[in-house]
């Protein structure tokens, strides 16, 4: 299984497997009916339904059966106005789902740049790990979402930070064949000589994946911008 497919499975996880990961504490104290109405409002991006649910006692941090908060649901279903509204109403910007995925990770994965900016403006943690030790930067580099990745770098993520198995963002980008993302990292000063815990460099990973343009790029890296 490729790193890209692994990332997608982690973010879109749903159904009985994910539900089994949720502890009883995830279930909101509001009545089931009110919580279901709040969850439906997030899924539909319906702010009127949200207001009605809140008036009936729903929490702004209500969750669905797989642990997704209203904010997370709105991000995953691409309802930016709703997501911004729940943030403005006090939703926890760091409330993770059952897999440990944070709203920032989800926004990066879905390449939702306005929401990435909104979450970064709230100074959310940048180095939070999900249950498989991935961070928002790993999701950005590993999915080739260059603009989101650059926002994370601008927010203070170290460019050569080490993640699980001593992988760097450059290794994630190159190993998945993302030429533009690899170039952007090199232009920002990422080190191509670093090795993971197997002794492999980003270029070796690109070669293994058959990503010749990335291999050539790492052979002749651009000048640091």
Note down, in words, how this protein is organized.
The two termini are 34 Å apart. The protein has a domain at 3-157: Alpha Horseshoe (Serine Threonine Protein Phosphatase 5, Tetratricopeptide repeat). It has helices at residues 3-12, 16-19, 32-44, 47-55, 70-76, 80-88, 103-109, 113-121, 136-143, 146-155, 169-175, 179-187, 202-209, 212-219. The chain has 225 residues and is an all-alpha fold. It has 14 helices and no strands.
Structure in a nutshell:
The chain is mostly helical. It is 52% helix and 0% strand.
What structural class do you assign from the helix and strand content?
mainly alpha
Stretches where pLDDT is under 50 for at least 5 consecutive residues are: 5-30
Beta-strand percentage range: under 5%
SS elements, strand count: 0
Q: What is the percent of helical residues?
A: 40-55%
- Quick one: overall form? elongated
How many helix segments? 14
Task: Give a quick account of the main beta sheet: strands, pairing sense, barrel closure.
Answer: none
Features:
0% strand; 52% helix; Serine Threonine Protein Phosphatase 5, Tetratricopeptide repeat; mainly alpha; 225 residues; elongated
Topology of helices and strands:
Blueprint: H1 3-12, H2 16-19, H3 32-44, H4 47-55, H5 70-76, H6 80-88, H7 103-109, H8 113-121, H9 136-143, H10 146-155, H11 169-175, H12 179-187, H13 202-209, H14 212-219
Helix pairs in contact: 3-4, 3-5, 5-6, 7-8, 7-9, 8-10, 9-10, 9-11, 11-12, 11-13, 12-14, 13-14
């Amino acid at each position: 299984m490729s790193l890209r497919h692994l990332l997608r499975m982690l973010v879109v996880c749903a159904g009985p497997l994910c539900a089994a990961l949720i502890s009883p504490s995830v279930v909101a104290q509001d009545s089931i009916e009110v919580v279901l109405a709040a969850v439906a409002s997030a899924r539909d991006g319906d702010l009127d339904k949200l207001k009605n649910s809140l008036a009936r006692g729903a929490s702004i941090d209500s969750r669905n059966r797989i642990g997704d908060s209203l904010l997370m649901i709105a991000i995953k279903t691409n309802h930016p106005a709703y997501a911004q509204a729940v943030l403005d109403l006090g939703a926890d910007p760091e409330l993770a789902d059952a897999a440990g995925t944070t709203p920032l990770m989800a926004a990066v994965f879905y390449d939702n740049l306005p929401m990435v900016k909104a979450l970064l403006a709230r100074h959310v943690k940048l180095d939070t790990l999900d249950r498989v030790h991935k961070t928002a930067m790993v999701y950005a580099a590993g999915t080739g979402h260059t603009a989101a990745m650059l926002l994370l770098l601008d927010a203070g993520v170290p460019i050569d930070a080490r993640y699980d198995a001593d992988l760097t963002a450059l290794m994630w980008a190159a190993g998945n064949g993302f030429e533009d993302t690899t170039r952007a990292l090199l232009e920002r000063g990422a080190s191509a000589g670093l090795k993971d815990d197997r002794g492999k460099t980003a270029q070796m990973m690109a070669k293994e994946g058959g990503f010749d343009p990335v291999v050539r790029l790492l052979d002749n890296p651009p000048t640091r911008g």
